Amino acid sequence: MAEVINMPRLSDTMEEGVVAKWLKQKGDKIEEGDILAEIETDKATMEFESFYEGTLLHIGIEEGETAPVDTLLAIIGEEGEDISELLNGDKGAEKDQKKEKKEDKSDADDDQDEPEDEAESDGDSDDGEIPEGVEIITMPRLSDTMEEGTVASWLKKEGDKVEEGDILAEIETDKATMEFESFYDGTLLKIGLEEGETAKVDSLLAIIGPEGTDVSKISLDGKSKKKSSDKTDKKEEKSDKKEEGNSSPKKSSDSSKDGGRIFASPLAKKMAEDKGVDLSDVKGSGGNGRIVKKDIEDYKPSEKAAESKEVKEDNAAALQTYVPAGEESFEEIKNSQMRKTIAKRLGESKFNAPHYYLTIEVDMANAMASRKQINEMPDVKVSFNDMVIKASAMALRKHPRVNSQWTGESTKIAKHIHMGVAVAVEEGLVVPVLKFADQMSMTQIGNNVKDVAGKARNKKLQPKDMEGSTFTVSNLGMFGIVEFTSIINQPNSAILSVGTIVEKPVVKDGQIVVGNTMKLTLACDHRTVDGATGAAFLKTLKTYLENPVTMLA
Length: 553
Fold this sequence. Notes:
Layout: E1 3-6, E2 16-22, E3 29-30, E4 35-40, E5 45-49, E6 54-59, E7 66-68, E8 72-77, H1 84-105, H2 116-119, E9 135-138, E10 148-154, E11 161-162, E12 167-172, E13 177-181, E14 186-191, E15 198-200, E16 204-209, H3 228-244, H4 266-275, H5 293-298, H6 303-318, H7 337-352, E17 355-363, H8 365-375, H9 384-398, E18 404-406, E19 411-413, E20 419-421, E21 423-425, E22 428-430, E23 433-434, H10 442-457, E24 471-475, E25 494-508, E26 511-525, H11 531-546
Parallel strand pairs: 20-24, 24-25
Antiparallel strand pairs: 1-8, 2-4, 2-7, 3-6, 4-5, 6-8, 9-16, 10-12, 10-15, 11-14, 12-13, 14-16, 17-26, 18-19, 20-23, 21-22, 25-26
């Protein structure tokens, strides 16, 4: 009997995964324990093995695709086995989910199953239905970041005649106050927002239609029981009329070379305009030949057209004074699961935990001398970061309140000390954990840090290697950073930011001498760690680092 394999939950926080690579192909024989694929989670890329024997009958997620946990990943069964019911069942469930999302997104979809004659009825119909010829005007999105707008002033009032192109109102956006014109002819039957009122984008702004039309039954959210296609056709007809009435000889980008209408999404039109692409030269891949974003991205002009364009540009450039210019462009990089999780976790930490910061400057003269002596021993290598980790672990033992977690109902003070060590990797940042770090010597800490850092850079870390930290150290000193602050690695209550060692003049015994100092900044969660507590921790940490012999006891 065929076995369905779903996208596994490979970490406690994993919500979706990416198939980085398939190690088996459809039709391959599978043994229990064989590695099927490499799955990229929010923490690492991990090998996923099969728990079944048989033939790989179906691959549900291709390489590079992202899917939520429990999505169909593969089907294993007997060679030649009929799995159509399993596939249909999965597709049916997926279709239902998409249908539900679509219905939630648009209230108008609630009426999609109503009889056609009801959907196409005229003005004297059920409550909320839009009469023939009536147009609903909603709050427009007048900037790329606009989420709501305010009606600064109305230039038309209810009952006024409105022609296409008339300015209806001045709308205040998040960037400017802009004039908003009508795209319809008729009478202004209703104003939905008074001057000074604010509403979200797509809220009812006004209603335009034939004079005397009763619009009292139209709900304020502008819901319609008319077919959406009817409304779309009317808008397209009006748009066509507008184009026909335009006296400018410039050809519309919405018209094909033979005069027929071109259907394209708004985004595709905008992209085509920005790139100087004639929509009539683009073949649409959407429904009914509709041009979509991908068609513009994939479009390549013919060699002759490109050559002609280049010649024109060269000629134009030769006829005018040189003006510095360039093409605005972006490189879009798909966010990895790790990057998405970093963004989510850091956002939650920064916005939920009230951060404050304490900074001290440490005299590193003794630490430098001690490190030099230690590293002269055979087969021993200790870094300043190892010394900071050891000193932090010992200081936490004396100040357990810093080694805590906020749960809302209580504060959990950890009796164990697990040090998180921030490691930069190509895709972002990971925090492997040194467990019971206070019990390790500096050389043991150094060896363990090298081991986990190597695993991190080679994507070999397992989720268990990054779980359970009670305190975190982040060091940018190797990059020459003198001082910085970090965002707390939840559920920790604090994180230590380590800067570089700086050679500079210092005062010792009343004399100015050359010294070496290092700045440490402690970010604390004020819900669990008070200022005095954080300051006391840093004082102890400073004592250990300025007197390294105390860490060897």
